[in-house]
Structures are given as C-alpha cells and as structure tokens.
Amino acid sequence: MNPNENPNSPGSEQPTQYSDPINQPTSEQPQSTPPVTENSDANQAVAAPLIGQDDPGKTLGIVSIVLDVLGLALIGAILGYLSKKKSKEAGYDGTLGQIGMIIGLVLVGLGTLVFIAYIALFAIVFSSAA
To answer: Which of 78, 79, 69, 80 has the alpha carbon at shortest distance from 107?
Structure first.
C-alpha cells in the first residue's frame, strides 16, 4: 500500500482485524461423535474405533499368550476368549485374543492327550508286573 493512497478508496485492501474475541473465526473443527454401526448378530450398537484409541483387549491377549507359554493354557485360552470379545465390542478384530485362545486350546488338547497316554502307559506297566 502506498502512503499517498486513501485507505478507504476501492482497491486498497486492509487486513481484517477483530477486536471482539467472541466473533473471531476459529480454526478448530467441532468434535464429532464416532459413527455407530449395527451388529446384526447380537443386535447391539458397536462403536467404530477412534483414531489413536488403543485396542482394549490387547493387554488381555498378550497376557493370554504369556500364560499359554508358561503352561497355564486353560487360563490363557479363557483370557484369549475374553480379549477377543472385548476387542470385538470396541470395533477391533481381536487378533491377539484369537491367537492366545487358539494356542491355549491346542495346548490343552495336547496336554489331555499326553495325560491319557501317561495313564495308559502306567496301566500297561502295572498290569504286566502283576
């Protein structure tokens, strides 16, 4: 802008200044609620996951896998199921819970087979000794 020009003349642009803080434009967007999808199986509303929100069943899934590895497979399978259920309710896929549940069930099955084989072996050994 030239100092000789009239500031009120057409063609001269001045930056808009707001002295009233209430009427100032804001760059913030209004907060919106997350979309809700309908779960047809259970007929209950399930919220879609929010950006930046962590999977609520993630910790239970990790605990279930750790318990499976430590030999507490039945408890690990149960916690895996609960983890998957909690994740599904929050809109996540529940992969860690499913992994913990599957590993736990496989180990429980293998443990049962080993136990049956162990009992059968003792039955054979003690029946032939008599």
So the answer is: 69
So what's the pLDDT on residue 53?
75
Return the SS3 of 49: coil
Packing angle, helices 95-129 and 73-90, rounded to 10: 160
Which residues of the chain register pLDDT less than 50?
A: none
Rounded-to-integer distance, Cα 53 and Cα 56, Å: 9
Classify residue 45: in a domain, yes or no. no
End-to-end CA distance of the chain: 115
Pairing mode, if any, of strands 36-39 and 44-47?
antiparallel
Q: Say what the pTM is.
A: 0.57
Domain count, the chain: 1
